[in-house]
Amino acid sequence: MSKVLLVHAKGGPPLGHVLSRTAARAEVHLLALSALPPAVADTARGLCASVVTPDDAHRRDLVSLIAGRARTVGADAVLTFSEYAVVAVAEACEELGLAGAGGAAALARDKRLMRATWREHGLPQPEFRAVATEEDLHRAAGSLPLPLLLKAAWSAGSTAHQVVRSPQEVSAAWRRSREVMAESALLGFAELHVAEADADFVVEQIVTGTASDWFEEPGWGDYVSVEGVVADGVFHPVCLSGRMPTVEPFTERAGITPARLPQDAQDRVVALAREAVDALGLRDCGTHTEIKLGADGRMWLIETAARFGGAMTVPQIEEVFGLDLVGMLVDHLLGRRVEWPPHTLGPAQARGAAGSLVVLAVDGEGGAWRDRRVWDFPALAASVSLSPGSELSVVAESSLPDGSPVPVYDPAGGANTMAALCLLSATDPRTVLRDFEELVDALPRVLPAARAEGAVR
Fold it and tell me: Which of 122, 124, 274, 432 has the most beta carbons within 10 angstroms of its beta carbon?
C-alpha cells in the first residue's frame, strides 16, 4: 500500500476531513507540527499508522525534519494543507524527488514576492511596496495613494492587517501589526520555516470593490476565490466561492460555494486566476486565488496560495459538486491517474449550496456586540429559524467548547478572535447568504450572556 506523510499545522481544512480522505487512499503517517485538535485527536490516531510530534530542537531545520521522517516511513508522497508549512513541505519534496508545489512555492506564500512576480507579468493588482521598517512604511505612505493596507508578508486569515489613512497613523499601525504577529506566533499561527518572517510586511493601495456590478442580488461581498489545483504544471480551475462582505478591516466572515456569478463573469474571473497561477510557476498542489471585483468589470488580484482554501472550502466543494479534492490530490501525488473537471463548475452543476460562517462578535453592520456572550451552539440552533431545506452544524475542531466566552473582536487580530465555525447546507447560494444574514443578526440575541466580570471594556 502506498504511504503518505501528512504534515499537520494550524489552518487549512479541518484535520478530520483531510485525514479520512487521505487514509482512504494510502497508509498515513502524521507529522504534527501543531497540537492535534482535541475533537479529532483519537480519530487521528486511529486512522494513522504513526503520529509523531517533534520537539522544538528538531524543528530548527524543518525541511530536514520532514525529509527525514518521510525517508523513515518510506513515504511515496508528502503533503500539507496548512499555509504555514507549505514552503517547508515543498522544499522537502524537492529534496526527496517527490511531486510537490516546487521551488516556486515561496512565490505563493511571501506576499512581497507574489506581487513582484505579478507586476513582472503585468497582471492587475493594487499598487504596493515591500516594507521592513517603520521608515519604509513612512516612505510608502508618502508615495502611494491613501488609504493603504499594511499586511504581514507571511500571514494568513487577515491577521495583522492595519489600515493607514494618514501619515500620522503610520507609527501606531506599524507597532500594532508587529504586536499582533508576535501574539499570533504564540498561538501557532505563524510561518514555520522562514526565520524572522514576522518582520516582513507589504503595504498596498486599497482598491474599491463593487459587488453590485457582478451579482444579481444584494448581500454578496466584493471578492471571490477560484479553487483549483495544479497538476504537472497545468492549472485546473474547479469552482468559484463567493463571500459575505468582510468585517473591518478585511476579515472574512463567510464563504459560500458556489459563487452565484453569471457565466460570462465567471469565465473572466477564471481567466485572470489562470494567469495569476501560471505566473507563479507552481507544479503539483492545490490552489486558492482571491480576486477583488470592481466597477465596470475591473478586477485586482489579492493573493494566490499553493494549497486548497481553508475553513470548510474543501468539504463544501465535496458536498456541492461531489468532488473529493483531498483524495484526488493524494492520488495525483502518488502518480495515479486523476480526471480533473474539464471546465470550471458553477451553479448549473451544483447540487444545492454550502457555506461556512466564522462566528465573530460583530453584528451585520460591522459593529461590536454591546455585551459579552457565551458560545452555545445548541442554543443557537434551537433559536434560529432557517429556510426550508437548510441544515446547520458546528465544526467542533475549529470551534471553542460550548460555554466559552466569545472573544471580543480585534480588527488587527482577524480570524484569531473567532469563536466558532459553522457549516450550512441549503438549496442554493442565495439561501445560504440569507440564512447567514439571519444567523449574524441572531447571534448577540440568542447566545447566553456572559457573567458581568466578562463585560466588554
Answer: 432
Neighbours of 401 (CB within 10 A): 12
In this structure, which topology does domain 127-205 adopt according to CATH?
Answer: Dna Ligase; domain 1 (3.30.1490)
Select 208-351's CATH number: 3.40.30.10, 3.30.470.20, 1.10.3210.10, 3.30.2350.10: 3.30.470.20
pLDDT tens digit sequence for 258-282:
999 999 999 999 999 999 999 999 9
Contact of 203 with 133, CB cutoff 8 Å: no
According to CATH, what is the number of the domain 352-457? 3.90.1170
Grid cell digits, residue 188: 501557532
Q: Does domain 3-98 have CATH number 3.90.550.10?
A: no
Query: Residue 36: helix, strand or coil by DSSP?
Result: coil
Q: Which pTM does this prediction carry?
A: 0.94
Residues 6+ apart with CB under 8 A from 157: 11, 189, 251, 252, 310, 414, 415, 416
Residue 303 three-state SS: strand
Contact 228, 285 (CB under 8 A): no
C-alpha span between 245 and 254 (Å, rounded): 8
Instruction: Summarize pLDDT for 60-73 with one digit per residue, the tens.
Output: 799 999 999 999 99
Amino acid at residue number 330: V
Q: How many residues does the chain have?
A: 457
Cell for 367?
459593529
